[in-house]
Amino acid sequence: MGKGKKGGKKAKKEIDPNAITEVDKAFYEIQITDLNKKLARMRSLNQELEVKTEELTEEKNKLDEDRNDIIIYLKRMLQEKTDEIKELEERITAMKEARDKDTIKYEAKINELKFEYKQMREQLLSENKLCEGKLNSLEEFRSQRDELMRKYEIQEVAIEEQEKRHKREMCEIERKFILSKDQLKKDMSSKLLQLSTEFHDATELRIAATTHRVIRENIAVNNELDVLLNNQQRLYGENTNLKTRDGMLRNHNELLLKENKIALAKVRVQIKLIERLTDDHQYMVNQLNKYKFFENEVIASRNKIQELNDKIKHSEFTKRILEQNLHHVRCDRTLIKTEFLYLEQENNRLLELMLEAVSAIKESLTVRTQSEMALKIGKRENLLNYLLLLLNKAKEKKMKVPSLDSVSLFEATYAKGDLGFVPKPVELRSSPPVRRHMDTQTGLSFEEYVATGEIAKEQMLYTEDDESSEYLVSELEGEGELAEEEPRKSLLFFDEQEVVDEESEEGVLVVEEEEELPTKQTKGEFEEGRASETQEGEEVEEEYTEGEESEASP
C-alpha cells in the first residue's frame, strides 16, 4: 500500500499544470523579440513624423509671410487709387469754380451791354422824333444831320474798338481752352499707361507665383496627410492586435501567476509604450486639425483678395462718374459758345436791314431840284413805308441757332480686358455706337465765319455809305435792339438715344467662370481612402484573431 502511494505522488508531479514546457518558452521568447522589433520601428516612425511636423510648421510660416506681403501690397495700391480719385475730384471742383466765375463775368458784361444799348436806343428814338418835326426845313435837317453824324462817328470808333477787344478776348479764351484740353488728355493718358504697366508687372510677379506655389504646397500637404492616415491605420491595427495579445497573456497569467512575473513586467512596459503611442497618435490628429484650420485661413485670405478687387472696381466706377461730370462741363461750354454765335448772327442780320434802309434813302435823296418837289414828296412817302416794313421785318424774323446733337466724350485709353488678365466683355448690342464730328454739330468756326460769311459782305457794302446812310443806320440800330431784347431760348439739343447707348456700354454683361477649389476633390479622395483603410484594418484584425485561435487550440 505504501508503494502505491509513492507511485501516485510521482504521477501527480509529472502532470503538474503549473509546469512550463520548452515550446511555450520558445514561443514567448519569439513574441518578446517581435515586440522589441516593433518598438524600434515605432520609435523610428515617431522621429520621422516629428521631422515632418517641423517641416510643415516652417511651410506654414512661409505661407503666412507671403499672405501678409500680398495684403500689404493690395492696401498700398488701394490707397494710391483713393489718392488719385481725390486729386481728380479737386480738379473738377476747381474747374466748376472757374466756370461759375466766367459765367458771372459774362452775365455782368451782357447786362452792361444791354443797359448801354437801351440808353442808346432811347436817345436815338428821341432824336428821331425831333428830326421828324424838322423834315420840312432843309437847313434845320442839315444842321441836325451834322450833329448826328459827329455822334455817329464817335460811336463808330467806340464800336470798332469794342469789337477788336472782343476778338482778342475770344482768341485768348479759345487758345486757353485748347491748351488745357490737350494738357488734360496728355496727363490722363500718361497716368493710365503708368497704372496699367505697374498693375501688369505687380500681378505677374505676385499673384501668379503665389497661387501656383500655394496649389503645389496644398497638393504636397494632401499627399503627406494621406501617408499619415495610412500610418495611423496601420498603427491602429497593430494596437488592436497588441490589445488582443495582451488579453491572451492575461488569461495565461491567471493560470501561471508564479512562473510568468518577468513576462508580466515586460507586458506592462509594452502597455505603457502603447499608451504613449496612442498619445502620439492623438497629437498627430490635433496637428491634422491645425493644418485644416490653416487651409481655411488660406481660403479666407482669397476671399479678402476678392473683396479688394471689388473695391478696385468700385473706384473705377467712381472714375467713370467723374468723367461724366467732365463731359457735362464741356456741354456747358458749348452752350455758352452757341449763345454767343446766336447774338453775333442777330447783330449781323440787323446790320443787313440797316444797309437796305440806307440804300433806299440814297435813292430818295438823288432828286434835289425845286421843280421835282412833288416827286420828292411821293418818294418820301414810299421811303417811310419801306422803312416801316423793314422795322416790322426786324421784329418778326428770328434766326435759328444750329443745334448740338452731342459733345465729344471722354474716351479711356484702355478698355477692360486689354491687359489679358480678365476676359473681354461680351457686348449684347449689335449696332455700333454713333460717333459725330464737332464740325457737323456746330458748323463753321468764328474765324471762318468772319472771313467768308455774311460779315465780310456787309463790310464791303458798309464802305459805300455816305452821310445820309450813316444817319439812318443809327436809327435802325435803335429799332434792332427791340428784337434783341425779346426772350430767347437756348437751342442746345442732346440726343437721348446716345446717352442710353453710352450707359449700355458701361453696363455690358461679363460672363466669368468660377474656379473650383482643389480642396473639394482632395477631401473626397481623403474620405474614400480612409474608408478603404479601415476596411483593410478590420480584415487584418480578423485574420490575426483567427491565427491566434488556431495557435491556442492545440
Features:
554 residues; disordered N terminus; 11 helices; single chain; 82% helix; mainly alpha
Explain what the structure shows.
It is found in: Cell projection, Cilium. Keywords: Cell projection, Cilium, Coiled coil. This is Cilia- and flagella-associated protein 157. It comes from Psylliodes chrysocephalus. Its main location: other. The protein has 554 residues and is mostly helical. It has one domain (35-411, 438-498, 521-549). 82% of the residues lie in helices and 0% in strands. It has 11 helices and no strands. The chain has helices spanning 2-14, 22-133, 138-255, 261-364, 373-396, 438-442, 446-452, 454-462, 467-484, 496-506, 518-552. α3 (138-255) packs parallel to α11. The chain is rod-shaped and about 175 Å long. The two termini are 38 Å apart.
